[in-house]
Amino acid sequence: MRVRRVDPIKNARSNMVCAQLKTNGVISKSILNVFENTAREYFVPVVSLPIAYGDSPIYCDVPGRYLFAAQTLGIFLQHLNLSQDDKVLVVGGNYGYTATVLFELKCSAYIVESHPILVAKCRERLKKYSAVIQNTPLALGLEEYGPYRAIIIELGLSSIPDFVIHQLEENGKLAICITTPENGLTKACIFEKKSNKLHEVFTTGTNMPLCTELTGPDNFTF
Q1: Which side of the chain, N or C, has fewer Cβ within a 10 Å radius?
Q2: What structural domains and CATH numbers belong to the chain?
Q3: What is the pTM of this model?
């Protein structure tokens, strides 16, 4: 009798898609397919390989820097409703997983990353895409290639950086994790730019740790 071998990595990836994405309202077939076929373990530090498909953010070498939990990124992408060739700015490239997912969705991703270690990791993993990876302070964004249809900030912040409103196109959307200092709760939020103001259009709870590297005054209205 022929014994069927089970690939534990592929099994973990499939379980992630079912348990973390589908159960949290991610229904786009294209998004689910990309998560199913992207090797998340390639985008985390070696010490974090055992938790590559867990349901929590993963620490990425630098204090305050974490890879989104897959469910958070999946929910963001579902609500951003991106189309092919849409320009998306990723702030905080980490190891390049979020940008890779965007490239596989046929979007044009641009990455700004401030830490040399993460710049090197990101460039190595994104080399097949000829990605634009700018080594510059995160607070500057990346004005040269804007405006963007969407901006994804892969950081837990207490407020929205100043550059967002200027680099996001009208009707464009921002995906960001916001921590409320008063109670310490963190929300995964989508904001839409209307008449040069940001309006919250979606929010859900999340567990993204706070990063103090990039802060700035709020630039949105509810």
Answers
A1: N
A2: 8-221 (3.40.50.150)
A3: 0.92
